[in-house]
């Protein structure tokens, strides 16, 4: 979460995300430098790519649901959602007659390189509202933490929708 | 929920339905006019269509479950449920040897027009106990809020039943 | 639940099973007569059939899960479970090398006739540990309420197992 | 859980695992002898095999989820997971470019013989992080109880992933 113009709160590296307390959250600047000397999350570069490119991004969330992992392996380049009222949950979408792309990037342990790939994609395809890393999980963001949470809830809804719909589609 | 003969409680436009408090509920009359000047839910016309047509309707609920959205896209005109004990959860049904239709209407952002379409359908097909809007969600109603909640629980049960049954039906 | 040799506790007719309080439970004898004059559950005869045939039955539970309803419609006469460690949850079963039949009876609103059909089946096929009513739900029983609850949990486990396994079996 | 070099805490035989209290946990040594005279879990030999072979194993957990039971019946010898970020949840795995085998052993009520079979398998295939018993459940372990819980959560994630992915794979 963005605390000030170039001051960000992020989880400490290696923390159990199901059991966080205040000491598991640290502060870094937009270049990734830690004031406290603690080591920030291994995926810090993916968070920084978003905060740097758009000053209106105030929060970034990254999750690893089973549904996100499965969906990331079912398609080559992107999932696309159309004609759903729920698309109105995303900032700037005011009708179900919209189209939301959720791009999928191949996973790598080279997070700096992955962040550059995400940035290049956004320069041509647009920033969008989230993306999947294959076999790994979901990133989403928003102007406030509340917006980001709403986008996360909406994306998880869409992933569950995709899986249920395709599971029965052959009937 | 109906408060008096022509006095209705409804959610304020744009509220987070997972985080409602008293200020998110407002009062309107049967023509949709707001006493307080607050703006009521974007789907007010769909609620009014029901309260106007039947003075015995005391409560209307609208939900957006993943199951409702998926089911609304699996059929052309309606889902039909037959031979299930659970049908006795609906007012006026006293045996499993009944047939419940759940019509599906195409989604539109023109809610007034959609409300008219629902009204026309009910005049020929009967009022029923609920309907789906395609890619959007579920409407149901009842004499009391408790009846309406029971209808909602029963409809969500039937939607889950439909999806699980069709997911394994080809075995 | 059996309170004494011929004294049974049962729910009052028409109660909301998700919202029971003490006044929703009444006492009847083995012939179904109510001391208080309250009307007992519409399915009282199905409970009495079990308490009458076996003095060791101290508790009977009847549920309506979606999984039970779907499973009851997937087979003609019975579900059969074999080779599962969980079968040891049932009284008298001490190895996974066992076979548990869960018979399915067609639903009817004539509960007295259904109870007679269940009794006839048990006289030839054995009492077993539970049965399904098609499109309706599950009955199970036990020596104590704790045994009955364990049987219920085990049967719901087996029904979920059956549905998940058959949902992916064609891979 | 290992309490000292040759002192282990284990559940008493026949306890309801959903309703444990302190009296349901007893102490045994590495040869399985009980100090208190209570009888330990019927599967004590499977726990001992792990504590004996590796002094770094401080905790062992055994569960019976529906997903584990279904998965154990879908494959002949093992499930194998590759290319998933979640593999980093296991001790010693630092990249998604890893391969985790989850072997499946046939169930038997002869637990001593099963423990010998597990030991033989580990001598050739390596100790790994867990295994399934067919139609029965899952065993996993770790240096501390916290590590063991993380392995359990990760294995249940992978089992759910396997089932969801294969349920929609034919689309």
Strand content of chain A: 15-25%
Through-space gap between termini of chain A = 44 Å
- Count helical runs of chain A: 4
Question: What is the CA-atom radius of gyration of chain A, in angstroms?
Answer: 16 Å
Unreliable stretches covering 5 or more consecutive residues of chain A: none
Mean pLDDT of chain A: 94
Main pleated-sheet profile of chain A: 5 strands, mixed
Quickly give the structural class of chain A.
Answer: alpha+beta
- Helix amount of chain A, in percent? 25-40%
Care to describe what's here?
Four copies of one chain form a homotetramer. By secondary structure, chain A is of the alpha+beta class. The first copy, chain A, has four helices and eight strands, in the order E-E-E-H-E-H-E-E-H-E-E-H. Chain A has helices at 44-53, 66-72, 111-125, 145-168, and strands at residues 2-4, 7-11, 25-29, 59-63, 78-82, 99-105, 130-133, 137-142. In chain A, the strands form two sheets. The first copy, chain A, has a five-stranded mixed β-sheet, sandwiched between helices. In chain A, strand 7 (130-133) and strand 8 form a beta hairpin. Chain A is globular and about 45 Å long. The termini of chain A are far apart. Chains in contact: A-B, A-D, B-C, C-D. Chains B and C meet through helix 4 of B and helix 2 and helix 4 of C.
């Amino acid at each position: 979460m963005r605390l000030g113009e170039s001051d960000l709160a992020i989880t400490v590296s290696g923390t159990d995300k199901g059991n966080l307390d205040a000491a598991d959250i640290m502060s870094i600047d937009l270049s990734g430098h830690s004031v406290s000397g603690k080591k920030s999350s291994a995926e810090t570069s993916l968070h920084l790519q978003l905060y740097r490119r758009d000053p209106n991004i105030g929060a970034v969330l990254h999750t690893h649901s089973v549904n996100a992992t499965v969906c990331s392996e079912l398609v080559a380049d992107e999932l696309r959602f159309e004609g759903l009222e729920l698309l109105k949950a995303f900032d700037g979408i005011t009708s179900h007659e919209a189209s939301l792309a959720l791009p999928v990037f191949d996973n790598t342990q080279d997070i700096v390189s992955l962040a550059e790939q995400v940035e290049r994609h956004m320069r041509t395809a647009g920033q969008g509202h989230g993306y999947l890393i294959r076999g790994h999980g979901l990133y989403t963001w928003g102007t406030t933490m509340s917006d980001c949470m709403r986008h996360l809830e909406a994306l998880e809804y869409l992933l569950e929708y995709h899986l249920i719909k395709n599971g029965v589609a052959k009937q």
